[in-house]
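pinging the channel bc i need a second pair of eyes. not urgent but kinda urgent?? the chain im working w is below, pasted from the shared doc
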Amino acid sequence: MKKVATRFAPSPTGPLHIGGVRTALFNWLYSKNQKGNFYLRIEDTDKERSKDEYKGQIIKSLKWIGINYDAEEYIQSKKIEDHIKIVNELLENGNAYRCYCSSEEIEEQKKRARQKKIPYVYDRKWRDKKEADTPKDIKPVIRFKSKIDGTSVLKDLVQGDVEIDNNTIEDFIILRNDGTPTYNLSASVDDHQMNMTHIIRGDDHKINTFKQMQIYQAMKWVLPSFAHIPLIHTIEGKKLSKRDRASTLDDYSKIGIMPDALRNYLLRLGWSYKDKEIFTLEESIKYFNLEGIGKSPSKLDMSRILSMNEHYIKNIDENDLFEQLTEYCKLYKSEIKSDKKDNIKKSLTFLKNKAKTLEDIFNNSQYIMVDEVSFNKDDIKLIDDKAKKVISDFNKRFGSVNKLSKETLEPIVNELIETNNTNFKGVGQPLRIALTGSKFGPGIYDIIISLGKVEVTKRLTNKKLG
């Protein structure tokens, strides 16, 4: 039995889309589950639109989410001669022919189809003509001689058996008149030469699969197995496109979604295993199968992504969380200063409370990260004479505290509540504003402990407090 081999074959004509990432993930997980190989093929034959920056972004995105491919990237444009060789073999064995229709003729056929409100299908004009009849001033395209009679069945590993009438597939072009092969020809040759055993891709490729199956059969190659995954839709139920907001991995990375959380979300988007929701990487590989893929489109739900990310923030090792926060700040915010790192690291336990993203943790940490407090203009107005007295009284007593903890700070706060004839808010709010610049934020004991004695004293005596 052949070793399982899968591939992900994006075109570098734009940034890698979230739907493409899920397709790559399913291919990768299936091959790893089957102890097989997973390959990345860059389909860069569209020279006008293919760009190195997009190729780089595709490779970076896969690496970011933890998908590693075997061997070097397979570059399709380097295999053009192999593709053309197969075109010539198809011509020789009678499975392809030269078509001399001018672009005007084709346009006229398309116009008539539009008028009749029927799909355009090439009329096979040159399918059986003799070479002697060929015009000398037109460079032909090469068309594949598709089956005309009967039906074809695709034994889809996700969708089940899919049957179509052969006459619905036109004699499609396999070589353009400029000598370049088309997608269906190149993909078939590459998949054969790469020894692909399973082709797992979006179900918008189904009609391509029927065309590629015919090329395989004409060449007497062993057919791979096919699995077509339903597409991802927006929450409104429309097909997700590259123009949609939050469609690339960079969009998620920028707001502080972590790779493991997004990978877990994409795994569960259209696939299930019992009622399990959270999967480690090892569990994803162990349990992944094609039987668990649903037949209906999935909806991309940002609230579910945030909820999954929040779960990971709460449950991953805090050293790992701190590393990811540090990297996030370096990439998208401002690098955490070395003298602030220990304070943030030891405070993560409460800084991550209610945080759905790394950006939330960054925002919650701002009061530690800054060298000087900037006050919210509405909140500073709350520092009246009574609040100033609370701050001053606290500072006097705070000086004698040696070890900062809730146990050492609580008696001071309780004493101030009593002597100033107020409540917990009456003490906590002025202190919070003085220490963070805002009346909103973590608990007052957490703030004091996270800042440390020297910084607290400095902030409580800030001249801007009057």
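so The mean pLDDT is 94. and The longest strand covers residues 37-42. — does that match what u expected or am i reading it wrong
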